[in-house]
Amino acid sequence: MNGGFWAVITVLSWGTWLLPLHRLQAVDERKKTFWLTTGIMGFSFCVAMLRGFQGITLGLFVSAFLGGIVWSCSGLAAVKAVSELGLARAMGIWSPLNVLWSLVWGAILFSEFKGWPLRQVGKLVFGVVLMVIGILLIANAHSSEEGKKSARNIRVGLACALVAGVGWGSYFLPIRWSEASPWVTAFPMAIGMWAGSLLPVLWSWGSNSKSDRTLVTYAFISALLWSCGNYGSLLLMEAIGTGRGFTVAQGCLMVNALVGVFLLKDPAPGSPAGESVLVGVLLAALGAMIVGMVKG
Fold it and tell me: What is the pLDDT of residues 97-154, one digit of tens each?
């Protein structure tokens, strides 16, 4: 199949994977994250069965496992951010931050921008500035729904979105140091994701107003969507290259904004907050695309 097919799969899946979990407003975030990662682990095991387990050494397993632990902590923060800020605002903050933080690590740990010509550095800075402006527009958009929440809740939501942005921009570091293929690391990373969500959920098992069957169903739908986006992005990058594939994947921000504003109506379409979120997401996605296309 060509890159266009995998691009659609990636963008639609990663733009909507949190929507099923968002419907479970009364469920503790720790339980949502646990069942989400359980589903992801199950799907990744099925893929590993089809592709084989070759290349998984003890050192590689440990590296990917640690990356999964970081992912699950970030996932818990992301679910909390969505419950406090809404889907469009929360994802509109952490997704560009994933890109920004990965750039920081690339510069500090891997010297990725060493020797770049000034023109390319200028393009990179321009893309980063657009992303920062977009994030600020999203973060400062106040909807009528926020009147039902305390200022502390909003601050908690913003803090959790920042944690998700930093964590999901960093979880790949142990995996990258292993220099292994993402296809090989996907399953041990999923085990780490599940393990990282297990301990927090033990303290919240009784705090649930929805039936476990409903929770598991919605969480597994989210897990399937995330997994489709994950493997779709791998196939997309194989088809058109890592840089271009990464750039195209940023289209999930626009899908997410449209879902949050026009489907969930949080913030409401046509409201000042809704317009601010849409403009902010557009700028952030454009900045991320520029960053993804810049080459030294």
Answer: 887 887 788 788 878 778 888 888 898 889 888 888 888 887 777 654 555 567 788 8
Question: In the block, which residue shows the tokens 């195209």?
Answer: 248
Give the span between the Cα atoms of 151 and 157, in whole angstroms.
10
| pTM for this prediction | 0.81
d(CA 179, CA 237): 16
b/e burial code for range 206-230 (CB count within 10 A of at least 16 → b): eebebeeeebbbbbbbbbbbbbbbb
Q: What is the CA radius of gyration of the chain?
A: 19
Residue whose entry in the numeric block shows the structure tokens 């779709």: 232
Q: For the residues of 213-281, what is the DSSP string, one character each?
A: HHHHHHHHHHHHHHHHHHHHHHHHHHHH-HHHHHHHHTTHHHHHHHIIIIIS-SSPTTSHHHHHHHHHH
Residues 257 and 160: their CA atoms lie apart, in Å, by 18
Q: How far is CA 16 from the centre of its chain?
A: 11
Token pair 């977009």: residue: 134
Which distant-in-sequence residues (6+ apart) come within 8 Å of 126 by Cβ?
287, 290
**CA dist., res. 3 & res. 66, Å (int):** 31
Continuous H helices in the chain: 3-16, 19-22, 29-51, 58-85, 87-109, 118-139, 151-168, 173-178, 182-202, 212-240, 242-249, 252-258, 272-293
Query: How many degrees, rounded to 5, is the angle at CA 251 between CA 245 and CA 252?
Result: 105
> For residue 61, how far is the Cα from the chain centroid?
22
Q: How far apart are CA 281 and CA 149, in angstroms?
A: 23
